[in-house]
Amino acid sequence: MRLEHDLKNEEIIEKVASGQLKLHAIDQQVGPVEGVAVRREAITRMTGIETKSLGSFSIDAADVVGRNIENMIGAIQLPLGIAGPVTVRGEYATGNFYLPLATTEGALVASTNRGCSVISTCGGATVRIFKEGMTRAPVFSARDVIHARDFVDWLAGNFEVMKAKAAETTRFGELVDATPYVVGTDIHLRLRFDTKDAMGMNMVTIASEAVSNYITEQFGIELVSLSGNMCTDKKPSAINNILGRGKTVVAEVVIPEDVVGVKLKTTGRSMAEVNYKKNLLGSALAGSMGYNAHAANIIAALYLACGQDAAHVVEGSGAITTMEMRHDGDLHCCVTIPAIQVGTVGGGTGIATQRECLQILGVAGAGDPPGTNAKKLAEIIAAAVLAGEISLIGAQSAGHLARAHKELGRK
After folding, report:
1. Catalytic positions, please?
2. Residue 10's pLDDT is what?
3. 82: closest CA among 36, 58, 116, 119?
């Protein structure tokens, strides 16, 4: 039987190499789990590149094939470090948290760890969520301006029915509001949903389709695209920075002058000046849509570790960092993150390694009540970003940035 099995696999590999069989069709021949190994061998033969390391992984291929990945040939491994603990004083995240950070950038974990130490010494980061809601924005085309105006008026009187149509597609999601934006005879309808503990992009896409189908049937207007980029998903945008998307989170800490000196080897006044001239003026001069030192660094490392959609880092990079001297000589540090999209159920959160990282943070799975775990994760991420900003601005203020990278990034 083993010989027949090997001959079958060899036949499949030869068919793939000759173009007779598509890569995705391998799973139908041998099943999804064995298909990973067979597909990897086919790629090795076709490219001449040994891929043994890609075949060494601990996650269960049966859990991810067809759900998180197509044409799987193995797994990429990233070093995972731990920073913290960092003390968080949020509405949902309260206590000390160790931060799992997946990265290949030397000095990042060490720098974040230093920022965590500063925050914890000062009693913790106070964190609050100000807005939340995942968006999808279908675009409709009216016959003329009068038709467009009639459509906008019609939307205002039909929200409850649209909300009910969306509810038919999901147990947990809820349509919160629907805001039309008109350009010429096109109407971009920005739909905002409460997605509870899910990041929710798939949820809101399916619900938005149901809403759009109802609109076209009832009003007689053309649906051009289910997404018209007013969402705005995975792209830097002013609308997300102003209105928020996912969750808008603010984290702050007040650092006494003596702590700045001992922990960061600089002064609060110097850090405030660096932040103003770098993060605010420099970013404005560059036309940046983010006014921060390296928020994306921390967000990306946490997203990768915790099974989040890594492409949403681009929206998180719109963070604004402020540092101001208080009258008593203490330094007030704050980060405002207008749009971070996180979830603790669905997507990559069920992969074994990522789930363990969520468990370290105490946010794996659905919260009780629903939505609390995702909010807790968002608060922890904001505190982590604050730690990263404090440490990097402190290093640049003290002139230590290059030295740290020489010592930790070039070994």
Report:
1. 105, 309, 405
2. 87
3. 116
In a domain, 74, yes or no: no
The proportion of the chain whose per-residue pLDDT surpasses 70, expressed as a percent, equals 96
CA distance 384 to 78: 19
Token readout for 231 is 């969402």
Pairing, β 246-255 against β 125-136: antiparallel
Model confidence pLDDT, tens digit, residues 337-371: 999 999 999 999 999 999 999 999 999 999 999 99
Domain coverage including residue 358: 80-132+246-408
Looking at residue 274, which CATH number applies to its domain? 3.90.770.10
89 with 193, same domain: the answer is no
Q: Name which of 211, 137, 215, 221 is nearest 169 in CA terms.
A: 211
Q: Which residues contact 15 (CB under 8 A, 6 or more apart)?
A: 21
- How far is it, in rounded angstroms, from Cα 16 to Cα 103? 34
Residue 122 in this model has a pLDDT that exceeds 70: yes
84 plus 111 within the same structural domain? yes
CA–CA separation, 322 and 133 (whole Å): 25
**Integer CA distances (angstroms), 277 to 272, 281, 282, in order:** 9, 5, 6
Assess whether 266 and 378 both reside in one domain: yes
Confidence of residue 411 (pLDDT cuts 50, 70, 90): low
* Distance set, CA 27 to CA 31, 33, 69 (Å): 5, 8, 13
Q: Specify the number of domains making up the chain.
A: 3
Query: SS3 sequence, 158-221?
Result: CHHHHHHHHHCCCCCCEEEEEEEEEECCEEEEEEEEECCCECCHHHHHHHHHHHHHHHHHHHCC
Q: How many helices (H) and strands (E) does the chain have?
A: 17, 10
